[in-house]
Amino acid sequence: MSSRSAVDDLQEIIEKLLGPGGCPWDREQTPKSLCDYLVEETFELVEAIRCNNSDEVKEELGDVVFLLAFISRLYGGGSFLQQAMHQGARKMVRRHPHVFDEKEINSLQELTRNWEEIKKTEKNHTRGYILDSVPKSLPPLLLAYRINSKAAKIGFTWARDEDLEDKLAEEWQEWQEALESRDRDRMLEEFGDYLFTLVEYGRRHKIKANSALAETNAKFARRMHQMEDLALEKGWDISKLDMEHLEELWQKAKGHGA
Question: Is there a contact between 157 and 138 (Cβ–Cβ < 8 Å)?
C-alpha cells in the first residue's frame, strides 16, 4: 500500500502546474492575487454547509484546501504548510490547558477569559488593543458581532436586556429623525447605529446576525422561486402583477412550505 498522502498528491500537482510545461495562469499567481479566490471558495463552502449537502461540502472543502496548499507553496513549498499546521496544533494545545494540562476550569466564562489571556501572551508587540485580534476584513455583520463580543468581555455592554431595548428604541427614533431630515450622511450613520445595536441584542441571546440573516435570505429566495413557479402555472407574468396578486402568491408559497 502506498504511503503517499493526499497532501503529497496535492503538492505534486501544484509543482506540475508551476513547473516547466505547466499552466501560465498558475505561474502568474501570487498569495495576494489568490485572496479573492480563497474568499469566494470559502463562501461557497459555507453555503454548502448551510444547505447540509455533504457532497458539495466535500467538493468545496477540496477547493479551499487546494488554494491553501497553493498559497503555502508560493510562500515556501510543502514545508511552509507543514510548519503552519504544526504551529496551529501547538496553538490549540496551548489554548486548551484544561484539556491538555491540569488547569481546572469551572465555567464557560472562566474558559473564555483564560482563552483571551493566553492570546494576549502570544502577541509580540508591546501594547495590544482589545480589538486588534478582530480581522477588519470580516463581513460587516460578523465584524459587528465580534466587536460587540470583545467589548462585552471587559463589561462594556448594557447591564440588562431592558436597557438595551431602550437603546434600540432610542436608535430607532434617531433613525426616524434622520429619515425626515433627508440628510444622506446622517441617514447612513443612524441606520448603521441601529444595526450595530441590534447585532449586540442578538449576540446577548446567542444569535449571530450574520447567520440569522443568511437563513432569512435563503428562505426569502426559496419563496420567491415558488412564487415564480406558481405564477407560471397560472400563465401570469410575475413582473407585471400588482401587490395584491404578489401577496397572494407569497402566501401560497408560504403554504407550500417554501
Answer: no
Estimate to the nearest angstrom the gap between the alpha carbon of 224 and the chain centroid.
Answer: 25
Distance, in Å, from the CA atom of 38 to the CA atom of 140, rounded to the nearest integer, reads 18
- DSSP codes of every residue in 159-212: SSHHHHHHHHHHHHHHHHHHHHHT-HHHHHHHHHHHHHHHHHHHHHTT--HHHH
Quote the DSSP letter at residue 114.
H
The string of pLDDT tens digits covering residues 58-90 is 999 999 999 999 999 999 876 888 899 899 999
E-strand ranges in the chain read none
The number of CA neighbours under 13 Å toward the Cβ of 139 is 13
pTM over 0.85: no
Give the CA distances from residue 31 to residues 26, 172, 244, in Å, rounded to whole numbers and listed in that order: 11, 43, 52
